Amino acid sequence: MSLLSCSDSALPPGQQLRAAQLGKLPADALLGLFDSGLGGLTVLRQLLQRRPGQPCLYVGDTARVPYGGRRPEEIRAIAAEVVGWLRAQGAQALVMACNTSNALALDVAQAEAGVPVVGLIDSLAQQLQAQRVGVLATPATAASGAYGKALRAARAGVQVLEVGCPLFVPAVERNELDSPQLRAAAAAYLAPLLEARVEVIVLGCTHYPLLEPLLRSLLPAGVQLVDPALAAMAVLESLLPPSEQPVAARPDLCRCRLVVTGDAADFAAGASHWLGQPAQVQQVNLRCPGGDL
User: Fold this and answer.
1) How far is CA 57 from the centre of its chain?
2) Which of 41, 54, 64, 202 is the most exposed place for a label (fewest CB within 10 A)?
3) pLDDT of residue 290 exceeding 60
4) Secondary structure of 137-177 in the HEC alphabet?
5) Strands (E), 4-131
């Protein structure tokens, strides 16, 4: 049985009024997504497989990766800057494809965007059906307690244990998905969750689905791994007309623009590997109205 509810129409708290005011988005709405680096591509992949050809603009803030070790006020300032840039580019809805900024700056994004903002944490909290939940996240997300707060607000009596994993994002950005050092770190991060006998472990950072084979090899068969991107896609699709195309085997990048704040060539190599096809990437300056350097 799936641990996510099948209700796709209910928006998380804080998004209902905005969506009600703006109504349904057009099928060709430009969707903006952002993350500190490669991790948010796991969300983009889910989106473009479900909605082939959807216009998308993905921002990888690679000049400032990772977000997980930054101070909350830094993350809030960064979120305001990225969201402001996406708004200037004409994005008609935003997906916070980054759990850290979602945990610490969702209110900033909603205030700045002027369009619906879909967050990973609230989306998951409204749909997850489990009583003992573990969360693997960046240190900043874990320290914020955002998943625990959202899950307890949505479901009475739920027990949540959040663990910060400082070594995961740097390893994924290096495309190091399994090594003796990483395996030892993963086992240490999982130990308190297994001791608490959690039913499900939330991958509380968009980089972490790439580590699923490693994590799965260290977990008992009865513990499920949940990617919040699936819940966020259900919320996003409730804002859009139904897609008339079947789910694609791989993401369709024909109407997707990928931009980064750091080295474009390096990101393109990683993105092409993650997305399973060549990716064109442009470097931009978020402080410039036009976006280009």
Assistant:
1) 14
2) 64
3) no
4) ECHHHHHHCHHHHHHHHHCCCCEEEEEECCCHHHHHHCCCC
5) 31-35, 56-60, 93-96, 117-119
147-200: pLDDT as tens digits? 999 999 999 999 999 999 999 999 998 889 999 999 999 999 999 999 999 999
Half-sphere exposure of residue 51: CA atoms within 13 angstroms, side-chain side: 24
Catalytic residue among 56, 98, 165, 256: 98
Report CA-CA distances (Å) from 84 to 89, 107, 172. 9, 13, 28
Q: Is 254 a catalytic site residue?
A: no
Q: Are residues 114 and 145 in the same domain?
A: no
Catalytic-labelled residue, pool 56, 165, 205, 256: 205
Residues 127 and 222 placed together within one structural domain of the fold: yes
Single-letter code of the amino acid located at 274? W
21 occurs within a structural domain: no
In the predicted model, what is the mean pLDDT of the chain?
Answer: 90
Q: In what order do the strands lie in the sheet with 224-226?
A: 159-164, 132-137, 200-204, 224-226
Q: Measure the CA–CA gap between 67 and 73, rounded to whole angstroms.
A: 11
Evaluate whether residue 20 is within a structural domain.
Answer: no
98 is catalytic: yes
